[in-house]
């Protein structure tokens, strides 16, 4: 449960930002977003969902509605461009930590690291930055958290 401005408990919120496009994700994806918010005790502002019509997840889980990007946590922006907001570090840690514990999460990419579970039920592995493409993947997730489900 989250708290309102008066310290009263209330359900945590998951909302789409005003500039979000293609918010049509699967019901399971929205359930995972809500579970993540509840597990981390935070409100989430999402900025990206399905990016292409169809059911093919090749290239990105966004293409089949099984991914979302988090832009802000409890109203605090995660970052801007390729810079992480230092005021958001503890919130990012809560969210990425909670995502790490969720069995249905496949990809957990954000400012504090990249984790990927190769298949359902397996623990996520940390992805290193040993190649140029992986460094680019890391730099591309400094201003948001990308979560995909199995």
Walk me through the structure:
By secondary structure, the chain is α+β, with helices and mostly antiparallel strands. The protein has one domain (2-149): Muramoyl-pentapeptide Carboxypeptidase, domain 2 (2-Layer Sandwich). It contains 3 helices and 12 strands, in the order βββαβββββαβββαβ. The protein has helices spanning 27-40, 89-100, 132-139, and strands at residues 2-3, 9-10, 14-21, 44-48, 67-73, 76-77, 79-80, 83-84, 105-110, 113-116, 125-126, 145-149. Strands 3, 4, 5, 6, 9, 10, 11 and 12 form an 8-stranded mixed β-sheet that branches. Strands 1-2 form a two-stranded antiparallel sheet. Strand 10 (113-116) and strand 11 (125-126) form a beta hairpin. Helix 1 packs across helix 2. It is globular, with a radius of gyration of 15 Å. The two termini are 25 Å apart.
């Amino acid at each position: 449960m989250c708290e309102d401005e008066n310290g009263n408990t209330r359900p945590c919120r998951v909302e789409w930002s005003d500039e979000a496009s293609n918010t049509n994700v699967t019901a399971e994806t929205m359930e995972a977003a809500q579970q993540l918010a509840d597990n981390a005790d935070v409100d989430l502002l999402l900025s990206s969902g399905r990016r292409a019509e169809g059911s093919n997840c090749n290239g990105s889980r966004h293409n089949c509605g099984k991914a979302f990007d988090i832009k802000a946590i409890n109203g605090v922006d995660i970052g801007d461009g390729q810079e992480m907001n230092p005021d958001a570090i503890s919130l990012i840690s809560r969210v990425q930590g909670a995502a790490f514990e969720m069995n249905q999460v496949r990809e957990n990419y954000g400012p504090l690291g990249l984790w990927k579970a190769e298949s359902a039920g397996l623990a996520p592995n940390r992805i290193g930055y040993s190649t140029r493409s992986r460094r680019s993947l890391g730099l591309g997730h400094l201003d948001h958290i990308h979560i995909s489900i199995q």
